[in-house]
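User: Could you walk me through two proteins back to back? I'd like the raw sequence and the structure tokens for each, with a short line separating them so I can tell where one ends and the next begins.

Assistant: Of course. Protein one, sequence then structure:
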Amino acid sequence: MPLGPLCGSFKVGTWNCRGLFIGDPAKRALSLNFLGKLAKKGHILCLQETHGLPNEVFTELCTLLPGWLVKHSSCLDADGIDAAGLGGVAILICPKLVEFDSGPSP
């Protein structure tokens, strides 16, 4: 994909969240603040170990980063049910790339 809308620069960030969506609310607030700062520096963010249920992760990330495309995959337990306390990844794509990829309407 041409990088025209990015003025020649393209930045991908990765972060092991170590349980972004579980545990202490104060830690979560600090982590989300850090993620907001990270988003200002990159076009695609890859998060590992999000540890959250799909709706929770999707809602929180979309609220924090309006206009970003959020793709999340949680881990499943032995019964095939989403397990909030296990792993999970998210890929976040900035609005410039989302707009560029969708192109003009026919």
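----
Protein two, same layout:
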Amino acid sequence: MMPQFEVAGGLVPGPFRLWSDGMLNLTFQYMLDRPVFGDAGRREEMRRRLNLIPGIALKEDATRKCPTIQLAALAPAGSLDAFLAIMDCLR
């Protein structure tokens, strides 16, 4: 499942995909051509914030790829809220 966001001009793919095997695929690679996240610094800030969530450890080169994290990393109290706050910055 890949959420889409409505923006001026239509729908754009969301920043992640959910898989039935319990994995979440972050689509950094597909953000490269988006106006805001074409900037490497913005993607790096997003990676840094995601890495503050216990159980998430994205490597430095993740911002040019589509890394995966286990959904279980978002189960502890506060983790899902932190993840969603980070995703909210993409609006």
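The longest strand covers residues 4-7.

Let me know if you want the two compared in more detail.
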